């Protein structure tokens, strides 16, 4: 120990210290601490640098200096009490931090936390992932914000001055491509707002070769260049929407592509509603019509359907309605009538003129051409009045011309619609029968009389084949379908009678069917439910149509009213047979249906008092017995029956029903 600590050993050269340590076996001495051995080894195998020499001196002071307070005592025992360092701490890297002085008087370097080299060299995957995610999020937010600002600035420039900045439409479209879903959505909607604002109120036709070769002014040239660029970019935007829709239809549900497809459908619908007069309307209608052919409705389906209905309601000329009906009917045929019934219900929104069968030549008859007269002198006041009248006449002629065009388009629309309806009814496409019958019923006043016999024949075949009530068939479907056929047939007859057209048609088949269907109705538990059972998600798909909100008892009441209330020459035999059977079957009805039936009977008796004599009289009229099981009202002998059902109704639990039953005996 004294050899190492002496000043002579510290002044030795590198060669002398090596000989000295080897001869004196300093490295094998067990009384020397580990730190001293490390310092000695460093002197042996490394040529010390000036900085290394200073560190060795500091290391010696740290391990071998003795506090002044304990000098003179047993030095060896003091060293024994000093804590040792272990071999595991030999490879601790130097930190080169400032030294500190401990409580026991030692001066040592500040301890550092031991970290393995592998941990420093290879950080964990979770740390890398978190760091990369945070970096990407910050970069994405910054880039997204920049893109949004760019879109807004370009759109503002185009809207402020479309003619000068029309070329920016291409930049607006290119920014939308190859971006995130949110940026693509924003880009599509931004372009939609721009086109809705800058598109003029007229359609732009392509220039002919003669017009291109002719000389034109600078303003005209700029205007034509603007129009050509606008049409080109507008078509590119429609192609982008169509391509996005196609990709979304092939993608899985709830994917990003499907979300963008829904946005594209919304853009197409807004374009049709806001600028239906502009170019490429046919392409937009094709996109919507194709969407309406899918069986299962979704949000885009409902939006397209509502767009079609609004176009029907807002169309004043009839041209757009004709294009839509033509496309829908062609697609329905291609799909072999396998579509959703809501597509056919859109036709119910069409508005037709009340006298669409007027000939166009009526104007020539009412306003014959006048002969030319010699020019007469007219005062200034008369000329001013004639000028004003001429302006009014021109406006009336314009309105009349529009009506004539509308009549022409309406004739074509009716032909397409009724052809579709007849094909559905004739071939018996079950999913579309109800919608077709409702359409025939609504437009019955516009059907030509020549088609009446064929249409009634189709309805009779439906009653016989599709809606025939047999023990092995579902009462729920047959009774409702049969009632709807009867309503359609009776509506056809009385609509034609209302417009004073004399026709003689045999409706006995429908009356007999209505009489025969009353007993199965009493066994039907769905008599007070709507005709169409919709899914919960899209339960409001067809709620605007009155037909879909009708219950079975309401449909029966409508048939009963058409047969007995609107006919001046009432057949008392048929009326008595219907009243007797209705009294019998209403015992199985729910309370609301019983009240509805009693109201029908009471109203009919009040209109024809002779029927009251059969209720309150105990006398029998005619010969034979009453046959309540036969399904023919003319052969049932209702005059020989007794109305014993009223006795039971008087004791009904409902006070309303018992009160009405008592009124029949007065």
From TrEMBL:
Residues 375-412 form a coiled coil. Pfam families: CBF, NOC3p. GO terms for cellular component: nucleolus. GO terms for molecular function: chromatin binding. Signal peptide: none annotated. Transmembrane segments: none annotated. Belongs to the CBF/MAK21 family. This is Nucleolar complex-associated protein 3 N-terminal domain-containing protein.
């Amino acid at each position: 120990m004294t050899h190492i600590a002496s000043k002579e050993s510290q002044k030795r050269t590198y060669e002398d210290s090596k000989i000295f340590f080897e001869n004196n076996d300093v490295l094998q001495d067990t009384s020397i601490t580990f730190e001293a051995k490390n310092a000695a080894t460093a002197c042996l195998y490394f040529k010390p640098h000036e900085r290394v020499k200073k560190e060795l001196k500091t290391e010696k002071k740290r391990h071998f200096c003795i506090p002044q307070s304990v000098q003179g005592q047993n030095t060896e025992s003091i060293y024994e009490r000093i804590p040792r360092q272990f071999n595991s701490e030999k490879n601790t890297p130097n930190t080169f931090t400032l030294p500190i002085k401990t409580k026991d008087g030692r001066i040592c370097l500040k301890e550092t936390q031991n970290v393995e080299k592998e941990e420093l060299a290879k950080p964990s995957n979770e740390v890398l992932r978190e760091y990369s995610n945070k970096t990407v999020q910050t970069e994405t937010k910054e880039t997204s914000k920049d893109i949004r600002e760019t879109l807004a600035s370009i759109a503002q420039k185009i809207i402020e001055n479309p003619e000068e900045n029309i070329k920016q439409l291409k930049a607006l479209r290119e920014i939308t491509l190859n971006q995130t879903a949110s940026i693509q959505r924003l880009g599509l909607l931004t372009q939609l707002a721009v086109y809705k604002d800058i598109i003029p109120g007229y359609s732009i036709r392509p220039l002919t070769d003669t017009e291109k070769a002719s000389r034109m002014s600078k303003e005209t040239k700029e205007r034509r260049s603007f129009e050509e660029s606008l049409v080109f970019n507008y078509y590119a935007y429609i192609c982008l929407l169509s391509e996005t829709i196609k990709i979304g239809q092939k993608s899985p549900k709830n994917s990003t592509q499907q979300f963008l497809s829904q946005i594209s459908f919304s853009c197409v619908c807004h374009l049709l509603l806001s600028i239906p007069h502009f170019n490429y309307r046919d392409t937009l209608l094709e996109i919507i019509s194709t969407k309406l052919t899918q069986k299962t409705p979704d949000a885009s389906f409902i939006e397209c359907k509502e767009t079609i209905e609004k176009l029907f309601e807002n169309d004043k000329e009839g041209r757009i309605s004709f294009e839509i009906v033509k496309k829908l009917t062609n697609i329905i045929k291609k799909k072999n009538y396998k579509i959703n019934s809501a597509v056919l219900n859109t036709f119910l929104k069409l508005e037709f003129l009340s006298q669409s069968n007027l000939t166009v030549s009526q104007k020539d008859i009412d306003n014959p051409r006048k002969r030319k007269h010699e020019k007469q002198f007219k005062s200034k006041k008369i000329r001013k009045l004639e000028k004003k009248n001429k302006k009014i006449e021109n406006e009336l002629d314009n309105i009349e011309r529009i009506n004539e065009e509308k009549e022409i388009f309406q004739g074509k629309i009716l032909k397409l619609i009724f052809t579709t309806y007849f094909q559905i009814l004739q071939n018996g496409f079950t999913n579309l029968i109800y919608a077709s019958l409702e359409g025939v019923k609504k437009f019955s006043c516009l059907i030509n009389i020549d088609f009446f016999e064929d249409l009634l024949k189709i309805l009779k075949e439906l009653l016989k084949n599709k809606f025939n009530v047999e023990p092995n068939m579902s009462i729920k479907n047959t009774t409702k379908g049969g009632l709807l056929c009867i309503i359609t047939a009776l509506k056809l007859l009385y609509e034609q009678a209302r417009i004073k057209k004399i026709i003689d048609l045999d409706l006995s088949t429908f009356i007999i069917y209505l009489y025969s269907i009353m007993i199965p109705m009493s066994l039907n538990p769905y008599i007070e439910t709507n005709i169409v059972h919709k899914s919960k998600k899209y339960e409001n798909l067809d709620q605007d149509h009155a037909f879909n909100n009708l219950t079975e008892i309401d449909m029966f009441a409508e048939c009963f009213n058409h047969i007995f209330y609107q006919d001046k020459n009432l057949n008392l035999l048929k009326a008595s047979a219907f009243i007797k059977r209705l009294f019998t079957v209403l015992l199985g009805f729910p309370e609301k249906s019983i009240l509805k039936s009693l109201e029908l009977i009471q109203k009919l008796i009040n209109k024809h008092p002779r029927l009251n004599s059969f209720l309150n009289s105990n006398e029998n009229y005619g010969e034979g017995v009453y046959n309540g099981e036969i399904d023919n009202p003319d052969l049932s002998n209702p005059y020989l029956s007794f109305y014993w059902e009223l006795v039971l109704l008087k004791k009904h639990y409902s006070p309303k029903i018992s009160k009405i039953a008592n009124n029949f005996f007065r």
